[in-house]
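W.,

You were right to be curious about this one. When I first looked at the sequence I had no strong expectations either way, so I just let the prediction run and decided to look at it fresh. Below is the sequence, 425 residues in total, followed by the output.
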Amino acid sequence: MEMKAPRGTHDIMPDQSGAWQIVEEMIRRRCRSNGFDEIRTPIFEQTGVFARGVGDTTDIVQKEMYTFEDKGGRSMTLRPENTAGVVRAFLEHRLYAGPMPVKLYYLSAPMFRYENPQSGRYRQFHQFGVEVFGAPDASCDAEVIALAWGLLKDLGVEKLALHINSIGCPKCRAAYQEMLKAHFNAHLDELCETCHDRLERNPLRILDCKIDADKPFMKEAPHIIDHLCEECQTHLENLKKYLATAGIPYTIDPMIVRGLDYYTKTVFEIVSEDIGAQGTVCGGGRYDGLMRLMGGPELPGVGFAFGMERLLMVMDALGIMPEDDNTTDVYIASMPEEEARQAAFRLCLAMRAEGLRADVDHVQRSLKAQMKYAGKSNVHLMIVIGQDELETGKITVRDMRTKEERQTTMDAAVGTVLSMAEGEE
């Protein structure tokens, strides 16, 4: 049996993980500066968390969830997205009893969807996302958009387009749903099988159909933005004002409805214009009814999610992937005798205690082989410990790049290495 990663999954190897860590740290800094705290939830939940929260008319619930029965006979599901799970945690831990708003983020959290693997899209993938609970104002929508926009700028993704829409609220959406039914009933023979089911249960989902997306009757469908109630229209107009204040350009895109049932009012996507069709790196919106739908109080919410693989794919295509400095600050070679190896090991630990990336030989190479290894590896400084060094306590620190050498003692070696690693004279 050939051992391979399951289809639709991938390994993040050491030559890639450094870039992930750099991007993750930039995300953490941006979230901290915006007052967000990290939350970590289980990778599986009771199936009802997603069926109820995401919506049973979505492709995720109908086609893509990894659902299984545990040994206690309970239906469990690997999380396909994280908002529903974060809401569950928010309710379970009664965060609604504290001051509002509550601002949370999650980072490189694994998600699972059974879908056709393609560029930047996997069956196990990772998301960064934010959720804000308890803030109904359009200023909060603008804040989360500005966070995403600013982060992408931090990462060097410059040519961005923000697409926004409003999908209304239950008050104005009911009449709009009837308009959609009337429109799509006139094209019943052209609808895909899935959309036949959606027509009665949730016709808004038809606008998100990938199969029928390019058919003329889709473009002729009525737009909810033309049929908003006064509250939703005011919310949209206020969002536009806050985006203008933030200096973020936007385009109204009436075809954005997002793929989840819980959205209300604002929905948005941020696209890298350099990449085109594969360039959507962020999507989100407002979900004011989700908390109540999941058995909690009537509290508004707004958030977004990035696919980490998609984000890094865009950065790679733009040639702006961060380079991980995997330099070994100091490599300590030694003669094979145990006394020399012990001295090298002791010195290596002292170097590491000062935050240096230090290493020694663990496979009993000869001294010549260790020096050859250091020459081929990304080693900055090298120390050799032999019989003379043991007897005199004096060692030489060699810069493998400039060939500079400095004489020092065992006791002073850490300070010498620190100064050379930092480029001090």
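Here's what jumped out at me. The chain has two domains: 14-169+229-317, 328-421. And, maybe more interesting for your project: The chain has 15 helices and 16 strands.

Coffee later to discuss?

I.
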